[in-house]
Structures are given as C-alpha cells and as structure tokens.
Write a structure and sequence with these properties.
The chain is of the alpha+beta class. The chain has helices at residues 2-10, 14-43, 46-59, 65-69, 72-121, 129-132, 144-164, 174-181, 183-186, 194-197, 318-338, 342-347, 349-356, 359-378, and strands at 200-207, 215-222, 232-240, 255-260, 274-282, 289-297. A four-stranded antiparallel β-sheet has the order 1-2-3-4. Strands 5-6 form a two-stranded antiparallel sheet. The radius of gyration is 32 Å and the shape is extended. The N and C termini lie far apart (70 Å).
C-alpha cells in the first residue's frame, strides 16, 4: 500500500502536465516581455546611453585576445594590411579635397539663384505671375468649387488687411521664421534677439579659394538697424582633410579644427550679449550697505560670433569643448541644410522631411508596444491600470 501511495504522489495526469507547461510558458513570456520593456527603458535613458558610448569608445583600439594569440608571422602580415589602410586614408583625404573643389564650383552656379531669393525676400525684386505659379501635389489639390471658395475668402481677407495696413514688402521675418522653425537654432534664440533678427536679409556661404587651406565662411547680411553698425557678420570655420599621424585610422572625412567670429559694433545700450546686474554689499565693520553694478554675459544668439579661442596646444576645458562641439554642429547645419533649403524650412516642409528620418524607429517602438498590449489583453489574469489614478498620485 505504501508503494501505491508513493506512486500516486509522484505520477501526474497528462492533462495536469499540460497545465504546468502552459503556466511555465506564460511565466516565460511574461519574463521576456518585462525584459524587453526594461531594455527599452534603459536605451531611452541618456545617462545610460552616454555611459555605454563611453565604454565602447574606450574599447576602440584596445588589443583583443585573438590578435595576441596569432602567430608572429601572421601578425607581421596584419601590420602590412594596416599600412595599406593608412594609404587608403590618405587617398580618402584627397577625395574630400576634390569634393571641396566641386563644392566651390557648384556654389558659383547656385549663387545667382540664392541672390534672387534674397532680392525677393527683401523686396528688391517682385516676382512675375509666371514665377509665382506653383503646381500643388495631387494629394494637396482641391476641387474647383473648394478652390473658388477659398479664393473668395482669401480675397475678402486681403481686402480687410489692405484697409488695416499697407501691403507688406518682400517676405517679412523670413530668416527669423526659419530660425524659429529649426530646433537646433531656436534653442539659441532669446526674446531680445528676435527684434534684431527681423533685420537679417540673407545668409551666404563662401568657400576658401583654390590652393588655400580648406575653410568656409558664413556671412549674415543685415539691413541698417538701431542695434549695430555692421552690415555683415561673419563666422569662419577652418577645416582639415588629412589623417592624424598619431591616429590615422580615426580619419572619417574633413573635420573642423577651429572657428573665428567677428566683432559686433553695438550701438550704445543695445548689446544683448551683456546685461547689467545690481548687487547690494554690506560692510562687515561699519554695517553700511552699498549697491554695486556689474556687467555680466547674457544668453543670446549673437554669442555665436564670439566662440571660445582654441589655444595652440589644442587643449580645452570641458565647457569650452562642449561649446565648440555645439558650435561646429550649428555651423555645419547652416551650411549644409539651412542656406540651400531656406524656403523649405520657412514653410516647415524641410522639418517634416527631417522628422521622417526618425519615423521607422518610432514605428518599430509603437509596434512593440502594440504587441505587448495585445499580449496583456489576451492574458486572462491581466488587470488594466486604473485610468483615473488616486488623487494623491496626481501632479499638483
């Protein structure tokens, strides 16, 4: 009898076994779902990503155990391959030098079009009806009746505006609108910068002459204004397209080595890069109080024209390095994107194109979240979160 009882306790019905397997599968699926969710949260944390990137950067150039284990004769051949790689880097540098020459050539072809754009913006030229005719995409086309209705409404609105004020000249606040539409630039703008940037009429890119060290200059052209006497503010970026002898494998195209701004001749009391503050100081002995006035730096877009100087040693503190890194990114973006496609940033179309670069990742994340939600809904034990959290959980 003891043996029979023991047997009953150790053996399980096949149906019971299936239940156990299902539970184990559910638990495993739940663990995988939690692991995916945790991984996504970690990868969205900037501090974790920065630490991971720092760790990966530290591994670059580190010898691997595999290389150390290779026979001496094989290591010798690998060294030959590395020498070939250095030669490839020098050829690549020459390639980018020729690209720069092509940029110079085509910049001359683009410039007449950019000059005409500037003339239209600042009302120096009124485009013809033919030049103003724009064919909409099929998706944007409306029915004839709808178009007529909109034209009638627009005509009424225009008549009202004409009664209220004079016809605007050119395209008012063109470049200010461009700046405000681009996150990279709008982050630099302060409220006190906007009245000045309303006077910005054009931005031009000038490349270094043939045979000269590689560089480009951004020219900001202003109409006469009450803020400064300059008609053009400049920012020059010096570039290098050659592998570093101490680290040739790091070469990845031209790099900006430094930049030079310009002196802004501010009108009296109009310098937005400085602000005056007043502090009260109490004398330790006599107890008297005096007010001290100090002039300190002020946040402004126009600090863009006063970048930190790079010492001959090339060594900078962390703050200066961060400022220059951001400065180089902005200068490159203005040159590569803003100047060639200004009208599309004015209308917002280029911003939509930039956002499309991130759509795929976003869709993938949405799909994963959708899968997790579907799994939760199919789980009979799933309890949805309360859509209305308790009062103590709500933000004050």
């Amino acid at each position: 009898m003891a043996d029979l009882d023991n047997k009953d306790q150790t053996e399980m019905d096949p149906a019971d076994m299936e239940d156990v397997e299902e539970v184990e599968e559910e638990e495993t699926g739940e663990d995988n779902s939690k692991a995916r969710q945790l991984t996504m949260q970690m990868m969205q944390n900037p501090q974790i990503l920065a630490a991971l990137q720092e760790r990966l950067d530290g591994l670059v150039g580190s010898p691997s155990g595999y290389m150390e284990s290779l026979p001496k004769v094989v290591k010798r051949r690998v060294n030959a391959l590395k020498n070939l790689q250095v030669k490839c880097a020098h050829i690549e540098a020459k390639f980018y030098e020729e690209v720069h020459e092509l940029e110079r050539k085509y910049a001359a072809l683009y410039q007449p079009l950019f000059d005409k754009r500037s003339d239209i913006v600042r009302a120096a030229y009124e485009p013809t009806d033919e030049e103003c005719e724009w064919k909409q995409d099929e998706e944007e086309e409306l029915t004839v009746s709808k178009q007529e209705e909109m034209k009638e409404k627009a005509k009424v609105e225009e008549e009202k505006k004409d009664e209220e004020k004079e016809d605007p000249k050119g395209i008012p606040e063109f470049w200010l609108t461009v700046f405000k539409n681009v996150d990279l630039l709008s982050e630099m703008l302060q409220e006190h910068d906007e009245p000045i940037l309303k006077h910005l009429q054009d931005i031009k890119v000038k490349f270094s002459d043939a045979g000269q060290p590689m560089s480009f200059t951004l020219e900001f052209h202003f109409e006469p204004n009450d803020f400064f006497t300059n008609t053009v503010l400049t920012k020059t970026y010096k570039m290098r397209s050659e592998p570093d002898e101490s680290d040739p494998f790091s070469f990845d195209g031209p790099e900006i080595m430094g930049c030079t701004g310009c002196t802004i001749d501010w009108s009296k009391g109009k310098n937005v890069t400085l602000k005056t503050i007043k502090k009260k100081q109490k004398h330790k002995g006599r107890g008297t109080v005096r007010t001290v006035t100090k002039t300190v730096p002020n946040d402004s877009f126009f600090n863009f024209f006063s970048p930190p100087e790079v010492p001959e040693s090339g060594e900078l503190d962390e703050d200066s390095e961060a400022v220059l890194a951001a400065d180089f990114e902005i200068g490159h973006f203005i040159r590569e994107r803003i100047v060639p496609r200004a009208v599309l940033y004015f209308t917002g179309e280029a911003i939509e194109d930039d956002d499309d670069d991130y759509d795929e990742e976003g869709e993938e994340a949405d799909d994963e979240e959708g899968e997790e939600e579907a799994d939760e809904e199919n789980d009979p034990d799933y309890e949805p979160k309360d859509a209305n959290p308790p009062e103590e959980c709500k933000q004050q």
